[in-house]
Design goal:
The protein has a ten-stranded mixed sheet with strand order 1-8-2-7-9-10-3-6-4-5, sandwiched between helices. The longest helix has 13 residues. The chain is built from ten helices and ten strands. The relative contact order is 0.23. The C terminus is likely disordered. The protein is 34% helix and 21% strand. The chain is globular and about 45 Å long. It is α/β, with parallel strands linked by helices. The two termini are 26 Å apart.
């Protein structure tokens, strides 16, 4: 199947299906947020928009990447998020790459956001939808981020439903520049477990679908049952 792998600057048309990849860390964090009870994630284009959305909706929370900042309730770190209780809450998320990529394809008929932690469910969702060729948006480093490209190629291979070994793709992500920066503590809002948490394959049983709701781009989890074929195709983390 003739999938495309592009960076955000290369989005010159409107594909039928887009999968936006941000492994380290936006869409690993989004998955963790859903696992901690978040009902929906609203994607914001700027930090000021994120704060404005929070202030205008009672009970909403806001998350950004980088260092903690006034008005924001969380930072873009799975290690720092995993013990939080967000039951029933709406979370507004703004990051440097992931949310930018998702908003760039907001008009696409079917948009999913993904990372390794939801790779299998994402592939199964696309097979169920008979999605055909997919445009994978590699958000990091202008489309050159090795961890995002590895995850995109892994999901594309998983879409076939066959036996796919995760280890080579995870090795590429583990040895990427983003992983090195995180491991060295060069990014603000960091937990020492972040790299390993970003490299857990199929940690969660849902895909994450972005749709337009009341002029907002909203991400929600969609449970995707695991088939026997999927269990055969999955490899150890």
């Amino acid at each position: 199947m003739d999938h495309r792998f592009v960076g955000i600057p290369e989005l010159t048309d409107v594909p039928r299906v887009a999968v936006v990849i941000d492994v380290m860390r936006a869409f690993t964090v989004a998955a963790w947020a859903f696992s901690r009870g978040v009902e929906r994630i609203v994607l914001a284009s700027t930090e000021s928009e994120a704060l404005a959305l929070k202030e205008s909706h009672s009970g909403w929370l806001a998350l950004k990447d980088g260092a903690p900042a006034a008005g924001f309730d969380a930072v873009n770190s799975p290690g720092l998020l995993r013990s939080r209780d967000f039951a029933g809450r709406t979370l507004v998320q703004k990051t440097t790459a992931g949310t930018v990529g998702a908003l760039a394809v907001a008009d696409v008929p079917l948009v999913l956001c993904a990372s390794f932690v939801v790779a299998g469910p994402t592939a199964r969702f696309l097979r169920t939808e008979d999605a055909g060729p997919v445009t994978f948006v590699v958000t990091g480093e202008g489309g050159r981020a090795e961890e995002d490209l590895a995850c995109a190629e892994y999901i594309a291979q998983r879409m076939t439903g066959g036996d796919v070994e995760a280890a080579p793709y995870l090795h590429r992500a583990r040895t990427s520049g983003a992983a090195a920066d995180l491991a060295a503590g060069l990014r603000s809002g960091y937990h020492p477990d972040d790299v390993e948490l970003c490299l857990e394959t199929d940690r969660f049983p849902f895909a994450m679908v972005a749709r337009q709701e009341d002029s907002l781009t909203v991400l929600r989890p969609v449970e995707v049952p695991e088939t026997s074929a999927a269990r055969v195709g999955r490899r150890s983390r």
